[in-house]
Write a structure and sequence with these properties.
The protein has a two-stranded antiparallel ribbon with strand order 1-2. The chain has 161 residues and is mainly alpha-helical. It is globular, with a radius of gyration of 19 Å. The protein contains seven helices and two strands; from the N terminus they run ααααββααα. Helix 3 packs across helix 4.
């Protein structure tokens, strides 16, 4: 055994357990995301449109942010348009660009977003813990994106433009 090997393995187990807990928590949220006639991808699209600046409310930007193909993004948005939760409009300054946005019904449905379960749980943390959780998860997400970007079949990072 090399020096520090035991502590390293113990640390690896703790990190693995933490990763599995995060995975389990997200699976719980995912399992609750088949409500109101929506699926998890559609909830993600509603969330994206609720927080995105108008300049990035396009199919291409949505696909990039969610690391999916334009075809998959188009299917998701088309379903939401049929459900009257999202509208498509031509950009007045560039007719080639199709803008997507929430309808009032789509915005209102976010009050029932299954992700609110996690938001409510995070609200139970102390303010300093909330900041730490946000910082830790942001670094972890960037590290995962970086690791995926190193593989040949990596989806684009949401930060790629």
């Amino acid at each position: 055994m090399k020096p520090g090997g035991r502590n390293r393995r113990a640390g690896d187990r703790r990190l693995r357990a933490t990763a599995e807990l995060l995975d389990h928590t997200m699976r719980l949220i995912y399992s609750q995301s088949f409500v109101h006639g929506l699926n998890p991808a559609q909830w993600g699209a509603l969330r994206y449109l609720a927080r995105a600046n108008e300049s990035v409310q396009t199919l291409t930007h949505f696909a990039r942010a969610h690391c999916v193909s334009k075809a998959a993004a188009s299917d998701t948005i088309s379903a939401l348009v049929r459900k009257k939760l999202v509208v498509r409009n031509k950009d007045p300054s560039d007719g080639r660009v199709m803008r997507i946005g929430l309808t009032a019904e789509g915005r209102g449905l976010l009050d029932s977003d299954p992700l609110n379960l996690l938001v409510d749980a995070l609200e139970g943390l102390l303010p300093q813990q909330q900041v730490q959780a946000a910082e830790i998860l942001a670094v972890a997400a960037r590290n995962v994106y970086a690791a995926i970007a190193g593989s040949s079949s990596a989806p684009p990072s949401p930060n790629d433009s």
